[in-house]
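Submission checklist for the structure archive. All mandatory fields must be present; incomplete records are returned to the submitter.

[x] Identifier: Integral membrane protein
[x] Organism: Helicobacter ailurogastricus
[x] Residue count: 73
[x] Sequence attached
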Amino acid sequence: MKKDTLTSLLDFFAGLFVGIALACGGLCFFIFSDLGLVVALFFSLFVFGLFSFFALLAKSMAALLKESRQSRI
């Protein structure tokens, strides 16, 4: 697999994980709102944080694989 293809794939998954984090975080809040505000906020932030972590991981790996023409420090 070429490097450009891999970076494009990682960028795609980063966007996908951000979308999942936002959608599922909001949905978890409404699903678990019957159990109480604290429980709903906990599950919502947990799901949002989990998928945001994977999005940041994929985006940082894509940024490391991209060739930079600037000199590195």
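[x] Structure attached
Curator remark: The helical segments are 3-31, 37-65. The chain has a mean pLDDT of 89.
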